[in-house]
Amino acid sequence: MKDEYKLSQEDLAKMKKIGNNYVNKDYDLYFNWSDEKMYCSELVWKIYKFGANIEIGKLQQLKEFDLSNSEVKKILKKRYGENIPLDETVISPVSIFNCEKLRTIAEN
After folding, report:
1. CA-CA 20 to 30 A from 90: which of 16, 63, 75, 99?
2. Using alpha carbons only, what angle is made at residue 31 by residues 28 and 36, rounded to the nearest 5 degrees?
3. pLDDT per residue over 61-76, tens digit each?
């Protein structure tokens, strides 16, 4: 986190407690915004939001992404059939990576 968003020990403890609620959850291959299953960037977003009240990255809807690539279309059809949940809330790894609240600590 950048200095202006520095996390306190209390924040970190609460984040750890929130994270522990998601231990042993199955991976969410369908990217549903629920707590039944979890995907990687959703887990990170929720730990920061509910543990420290910090939103990292921008929540979007699936329809906001470029879904026009033929491989993407194939995967979507395989996962969802004809009922692609275009209004589903999602958080992407890129959105978290580009978050202005975070700073790079190492690069290759």
Report:
1. 16
2. 50
3. 999 999 999 999 999 9
